[in-house]
Write the structure tokens for this entry.
Amino acid sequence: MNKLGKKNNWTAYLYILPLMIFSFALIYYCIICTIGTSFTDWNGMSKEMNFVGLKNYTKMVHDKTFWTAVVNNIIFFFGTVFVQAAVGFLLAVLLKNRLPGSNIFKAIYFMPIAMATSIITAIFKIIMDPTNGTLNAFLRAAGLKIFAVSWLGDQRFALLSVIIVNIFQWMGFSMIIYYASLMSLPDDVYEAAKIDGAGFWKTTLSVTLPMLKGTTNVLVILGIVGSLKTFDIVKLLTGGGPGRSSTVMNTYLYEKAFKDFNAGGAASIGVAILIIAVIMSFLQIRFGKED
Amino acid sequence: MKKNRWKMAVPSYGIFTLCALIWLLPIFTAFVKSFQINGLGNYKYVLTYEKISYFRVVFNSMLIAVSSAVIVTIITTLAAFAFSKMKFSGGKVLYGAVLACLAVPVAAVTSPLFATIKNFGLLDKHLGVIVPLVAFNAPMMLLMIKNYFDTIPDELLESARIDGANSFRIWYEFMIPLSIPIIANVLVLTFIYSWNDYLVPLLVMRSEENYTVTLAAQYFVSSTYQSPADVARIYAVMMLLTFPSIIVYLFSQKFLVGGITSGSVKG
């Protein structure tokens, strides 16, 4: 069945042309430039650019900060995706019953996504202030003084704080995705699973959750892509610090490019990120085909 | 059936309320504290602040976000039409290549991006922010629209074609009207993503009069000690800056929730 008649429809090229110019050309040009720059010693500004082979890469592989950043990205991924998915899933299952007021609750959980990260981080920076911030004031009042730490100023907690703020911002997204999938399940399948009188948790965990395996897959993939893209929230909340405790690959790259004027080194990190993204995509395509 | 729904009512509402309290707390705190000490004076301070005009900042963000949303919608509906309903050599490969861009973070390609913007003379110009935003948001929107177009039966197109319509007329009079929900969704989502973007304006905009909401927010936050009066003012700034996007969000509730999912859910 030929969709629009002709076998090789050349007008199609006209239709995709604007997109190709705007998106494809710009992004691939940037990718190619990044790859090329990674083999030079360019500083990002001057006309001078010398080929240095793999020097940037060898430096990167021996750079302790680079590996700290990679590890932080991984910790960030596991800390955010699974908590967001778990809470989102639970809420979605409960919301599926469409009790009165559900729409208001849904809107509340999703609202942070509509707010700019720039603003959310600004608000949390104040809330998380160790002496005057609302969070610690609340913890102290609740008798949990030991938890009233320096959320953003202590190396041990900075990354955790970033993860917490991210969960705050994005949990609603996981919830909505699960909710939509749940709503698209045929009702009789869903109800039949509940018939044998099994309790809420048993049904949810051993029946509902497996039914949504595809959705969970999608969220994991989006989570991987999302964590590789993490930049705003780290830069704005902690700047990558204190020290290197919350530095991620993108913030380290940005620093190398615009603070150290080492565009070559920054580019090699960029290439590393792209390679990881490609590998992750291949893995997903191979293992995600089950549904 | 009804009994089933209500069996879980008490624990459900309990969990809903607990989560709602946690999720509302930050914004609520900011809202309440923005009136501390000087009350509405905090707001007046922000609105009359000399170096940065609130209205100019909102205008900048609005211009950028609306333009990006409209441009993305147009180019992706055109392209999705071709990818979904036409056969042409290289079609699958090109589609895959565009989707691959989904994994590219703007942050990873900042240097070449900055250099390109500079070379085209678009530094400190709205267009310099719009073009990258369009470029990086388009792939995801393309995915969503193409998936939606795929669900429109080809047979419907056949009958239009037999009636003699050329492809552009089919696109304009047929595909678009049938896809209003997803188009509305793409418009709103792109608007929100563009409005919220921080890195691209950070790279491109140089002068205060071109600051976007996201840049302005950072301008007022500093790492030196802030008195409670300063803090109250900062909260007022945040409330004012986030107000437009919350309005857009609440207003577009219908379009948003349904649409995000149609492109990404397969299971």
User: Anything to note?
Assistant: The radius of gyration of chain A is 23 Å. Residues 64-95 of chain A form the longest helix (32 residues). Chain A touches chain B through 111 residues (CB under 8 Å). Chain A has a mean pLDDT of 86.
